[in-house]
């Protein structure tokens, strides 16, 4: 029998990469989302408001799967609301599937805010030493990642399935309409700079410009999710997941600038966030889209200024240790520079950027 998977958040940068991976491996794949964005070809689309228990129950009625992958969240006004809403979305799906998951596996994708704290208290507490390691555990702050984990743990005990938690750093990947997508945001920013003559200024902090960091290719994360769902060594474990190399933005900024044919501006010593400088981006992008016959004229469907500012504005060094998953058998590697270039090439091929 084919393995049957449900991907919750299938239209996002992680979900779409995972669906593509599983379909190529011959899996039967269901994708649950709000239905705002097309799902990968071959995936059975299911639509529901994940915040509604009844809507989720209705959407999953009659669906039988043995693997569930969560890569979904909905940003709220504060962390208490993030906890309430995002924890409930996980609970609604697992309760709807219930005992049919016995002997199966549930994987949850969170991220490095597990160690850094949520946006409301980003890096304000005592941040663990880098590289981050799974054994460092939770921070003493409210965090919706913890609420989502707790929902998975409780359901695993109740319905008798194995679980895994995956913590990527900033994700590079292709997805339109995704709220957390630095690669596409930087591609749009560089394109705007080239077409309008704006300087290609690094928007982040001195710590990020000079410090060591790493990133996660969505395709590599998809490979780890597949491995964890089918490996006994990964059962009931949490794993960091990054490409396997490290870099400094001081170097990478020039590489990105070179690809787009713009001049990288030397770092001024102060952060210059994108969100405060992109007020004219919507109109500018519409003009660019018309000029080059691009598929997406709404810049907000491609770029997430606030999220890129949050990542690049961190006042501390951030990178991770992936020894745990390597010791358990996951050995995949991806060059981060190549990940950026391959994404930019795909954006051009898909007529998302000129």
TrEMBL record:
Enzyme class name: oxidoreductase
Keyword Ion transport: no
GO molecular function: oxidoreductase activity
Pfam families linked to this entry: PRISE
UniProt xrefs under Gene3D superfamilies: NAD(P)-binding Rossmann-like Domain
EC numbers, comma separated: 1.1.1.-
Protein name: SDR family oxidoreductase
InterPro entries: NAD(P)-bd_dom_sf, PRISE-like_Rossmann-fold
Keywords: Oxidoreductase
Top-level taxon in the UniProt lineage: Bacteria
Species the sequence originates in: Serratia aquatilis
UniProt domain PRISE-like Rossmann-fold: residue ranges: 65-354
């Amino acid at each position: 029998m084919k393995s049957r998977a449900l991907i919750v958040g299938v239209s996002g940068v992680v979900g779409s990469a995972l669906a593509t991976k599983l379909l190529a491996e011959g899996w039967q794949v269901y994708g649950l989302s709000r239905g705002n964005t097309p799902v990968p070809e071959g995936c059975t689309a299911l639509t529901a408001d994940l915040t509604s228990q009844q809507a989720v129950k209705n959407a999953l009625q009659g669906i039988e799967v043995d693997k569930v992958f969560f890569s979904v969240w909905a940003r709220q006004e504060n962390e208490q609301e993030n906890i309430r809403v995002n924890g409930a979305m996980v609970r609604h799906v697992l309760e709807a599937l219930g005992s049919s998951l016995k002997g199966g596996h549930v994987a949850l994708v969170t991220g490095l805010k597990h160690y850094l704290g949520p946006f409301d208290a980003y890096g304000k507490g005592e941040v663990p030493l880098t590289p981050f390691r799974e054994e460092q555990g939770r921070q003493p702050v409210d965090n919706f990642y913890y609420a989502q984990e707790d929902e998975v743990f409780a359901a695993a005990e109740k319905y008798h399935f194995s679980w895994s938690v995956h913590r990527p750093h900033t994700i590079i990947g292709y997805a339109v309409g995704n709220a957390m997508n630095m690669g596409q945001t930087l591609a749009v920013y560089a394109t705007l700079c080239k077409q309008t003559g704006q300087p290609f200024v690094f928007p982040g902090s001195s710590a990020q410009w000079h410090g060591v960091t790493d990133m996660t290719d969505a395709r590599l994360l998809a490979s780890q999710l597949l491995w964890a769902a089918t490996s006994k060594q990964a059962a009931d474990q949490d794993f960091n997941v990054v490409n396997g190399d490290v870099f400094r933005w001081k170097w990478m900024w020039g590489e990105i600038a070179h690809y787009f044919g713009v001049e990288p501006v030397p770092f001024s010593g102060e952060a210059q966030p994108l969100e405060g400088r992109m007020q004219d981006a919507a109109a500018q992008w519409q003009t660019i889209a018309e000029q080059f016959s691009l598929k997406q004229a709404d810049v907000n469907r491609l770029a997430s200024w606030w999220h890129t500012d949050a990542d690049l504005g961190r006042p501390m060094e951030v990178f991770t240790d992936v020894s745990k998953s390597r010791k358990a058998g996951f050995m995949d590697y991806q060059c981060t520079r190549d990940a950026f270039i391959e994404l930019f090439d795909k954006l051009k091929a898909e007529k998302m950027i000129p």
